[in-house]
Design brief:
single chain; about 5% strand
């Protein structure tokens, strides 16, 4: 969804899900387990902090990034994200099943 938006700053998307990524299986599994954003200074963020940084570059989402930067909000978002990660496999199964029925 985010890739279809025109960002306010350049975003370089990298698909780490396939063999073309050139990653070890361990590194690929680590990167696939959570959402990541690499900042221009080279720092790698993951989880809620990564989403907050991405939202700040996306029109229509900047308001959410600004809220995410308020004191105490990113840790709450991280707790929500970790909860979502437990549900994600089941949600993916449901979505795949719905796609095959079409």
């Amino acid at each position: 969804m985010y890739q279809s938006l025109e960002s306010l700053q350049p975003v370089q998307w990298q698909d780490v899900s396939g063999t073309q990524a050139g990653l070890s299986p361990e590194e690929q599994a680590r990167l696939m387990a959570r959402f990541h954003v690499r900042l221009p200074d080279g720092r790698l963020l993951s989880g809620a902090a990564a989403f907050v940084e991405l939202w700040l570059t996306m029109p229509g989402w900047r308001w959410l990034g600004r809220i995410g930067r308020l004191p105490g909000v990113t840790p709450l978002l991280e707790l929500s994200y970790r909860g979502f990660l437990h549900l994600r496999p089941q949600l993916q199964k449901v979505m795949r099943a719905a796609e095959t029925r079409r």
